[in-house]
Specification:
Layout lengths: L1 H9 L4 E7 L2 E12 L5 E8 L8 H17 L3 E6 L4 H9 L3 E12 L2 E11 L7 H10 L6
Family: Belongs to the acetyltransferase family. RimJ subfamily.
Keywords: Acyltransferase, Transferase
Organism: Kitasatospora phosalacinea
Amino acid sequence: MVRYLRAEAAAGRMLPFVLLHQGRLVGQLTIGGITWGSMCSANVGYWVDEAVAGRGIMPTAVALAVDHCFRDLGLHRVEVCIRPENRPSRRVVEKLGFREEGVRPRYLHIDGDWRDHLVYALTAEEAADGLLRRWHDLRNRPPHGN
């Protein structure tokens, strides 16, 4: 797998990242399917260890990666496809302001069957001030009623 990820990264089709927390591997994020030309898009896939879920690690990582895609690489659109029942993963992109665009029926073969996925997307114009800034502003907002 590492050899494949390195080869795809060297070819400019993928950016694989690992997530470390307190010196320990706790997740992975991959910018894949990078397409240039008139499309200028990519998709994001990720996972995080349940032991650190809910601490803001994955929204921060997604925000940093998407900002890199838009600002440094010059991509225009980023998609994230998530199984409908994966509520924690859906919360990550919803917090960051990704739009839900619909369902891709039988999109990926997982656990022995073809699984539906919800498509979330964001364009560079929708994140002009940066996703990391959006995420920090959201986290620093006072609770309702204050």
